[in-house]
Amino acid sequence: MDSSKDLWREYVASALKGILKEADPSASCDGIENIVVAEIPPDPAMGDLGFPMFPFAKILRKSPAQIAEKCASLLSASFPDASVKAAGPYVNIFLPKKDVASKVLTEIISLGEDYGKPGVLDGKRFMVEFSSPNTNKPLHLGHLRNDALGESISRILKFCGADVYKVNIINDRGVHICKSMLAYKKFFNGKQPSDFSVKPDRFVGDCYVKFNDYSKENPEKADEEAKELLRLWEAGDPETLALWKTMNGWALEGLMQTYKRTGISFDKIYFESETYLKGKDEVLSGLEKGIFFKAEDGSLCVDLSPLNMDLKAERKVLLRSDGTSVYITQDIGTAISRHNDWSFDVMIYVVGSEQQYHFKVLFYILKLLGFDWADQLYHLSYGMVNLPEGKMKSREGTVVDGDDLINTLRDDALAEIREKERTETLSDAKDVAEKVALGALHYYLLQTSPTKDMLFNPKESLSFNGNTGPYLQYMGARISSILRRFVEDSKAASFRDAPVVPELLTDPAEWELLKTLSSYPDVVSRAAENRDPSIVTAFLYNVSKCFSRFYHDCPIFDAEGNSGKESASLSRTRLELAKAVSIVLKSAGNLVLVPFLTEM
Ligand code: ARG
To answer: Which residues, judged by CB distance below 6 Å to any ligand atom, belong to the binding site of ligand 1?
Structure first.
């Protein structure tokens, strides 16, 4: 329907131009096509496409209803095969079902996993930064939302034809890292993660928690000691560097395990310890050029007054008076290194909304430094995510550990499989449970628009009916079993070799399903444009609901046509439609990181 939609937009525009010319032969028709909007009528009985005529009332000096009347009659005369109706201020079109059915079905089956690629971003280069953890603790629920968004948006952009380069910045230096190191030295010296049988990043996180305890008892002393460790680190003290390397190694090892488990990957990982000096250099050369200034206390600052931001300070420190760098310093260096490494058209930073100010200032500074590409930097700011009160707080008491959460989801999914006594029929129940957990997690996290805060409700996310990942996976598994039955079941012998005849798909449930499938390219383009995977999750839910209705209303194995031959063809064609649905479910599911399951 996607291409039909564009075609009909053109037809409607040319009819409107005709009306305008008739009224005033000297009038200019420029730009009319740009204000023709196609809508999907709320009730399919009204038509497949609807064109509101309000925007033309002024130009044509007629009421929208009069225009609709005239436009519909012109279109009916030019396209006798189509059904065009004026309904109040709307021109509604009923698409020729046979053509659409045959086009959609043939396209999906022949293109397979390439079906739906809209090609709107062909050749465009996007760099996407996401995850970007610190190496002092394991990933938490907020990171899981970040990872899901970054990976999903990258896949969506790629599906639209873009060249996508996924990057991560690991903030592996600074006083927060030294805090874990200090606690290690004091309380765990000589120990290894394996001594406690914990994931290595968890062990580092445990050290960090221990530092917090220590600091509660010795507030000033603890911070001073951590700062001293940072000074040693910056001075290149061998013992401090060795411990830093070991502990960062543990943190990274654990992070990588979680990335692998959740299907997240990167083309390049940057490390703050390798880019912060470049940031320092840039700030110093900016001072020489007079872009930055030295404050009374000796720190190097940028003047923010031209930015006109409320509430915040008029200046931002870029290098402290003792010459040490701050958070934004490394980001200046990292951005420049990245553009040198892989010149991008657009760079997207997936980072929480609490850093909006940081990115505004960062982009402003890069622009001041003369980098034109600073205009192409985009902060995809996402909201907070929490669990419903009282559930699964980490020992630190503030954040929800990512690994723990996935383990809980997996165990709950496995318990449900056992309860339904499905363990025997599944070839690998544990693997299915793991994939259900990931499907539940990712779908739930992506279903909310990125900018909104949200609550993650584990129980709800796992529900098998409703707008959830497992519900989609269940649909996929159901279709897979139908497709297996087609090959194996003797009942299918009667229609296995019958021809596929898309024109036979005339039931309203079939028509709705076909129309929904045909909107896929449009859906993905919108998701890419708005950088919003929830547009894809909504589509997936819609496909599943339409399939459910189709499956209920239109028997596949016992289809009834006007003759034996026709019944066989109808069965065969419905099967083809089911296959098309599974192709689209798998493809769109992949865009939102929901694993496709052939059995469940
Ligand atoms: N590691 C930082 C944090 O945990 C986030 C880094 C975001 N990315 C960036 N380029 N600053 O707060």
So the answer is: 129, 132-134, 169, 171, 331, 349, 351
Residue 400 Cα to ligand 1 midpoint, Å, equals: 18
Q: How far away, in angstroms, is 277 Cα from ligand 1 center? A: 17
- Residue nearest (by alpha carbon) to ligand 1 atom 5: 132
Residue 390 pLDDT class (50, 70, 90 cuts): low
What is the DSSP secondary-structure string of 497-525?
TSPP-GGG--SHHHHHHHHHHHTHHHHHH
Q: Tens digit of pLDDT for each residue in 460-515?
A: 999 988 899 999 999 999 999 999 999 999 889 999 999 999 999 999 999 999 99
Using the atom order of ligand 1, give the atom closest to the CA of residue 351: 7
Q: Report the residue among 143, 208, 355, 359 best suited for mutation to probe ligand 1: largest number of ligand atoms under 8 A from its CB.
A: 355
**Paired tokens of 93:** 């079109």
The predicted model scores a pTM of 0.92
Ligand 1 atom 8 nearest Cα: 132
Strands (E), 320-452: 346-352, 377-382, 385-386
pLDDT at 499: 96
What is the 3-state secondary structure of 13-44?
A: HHHHHHHHHHHCCCCCCCCHHHHCCCECCCCH
Q: Is 401 helix (H, G, I), strand (E, B) or coil?
A: strand
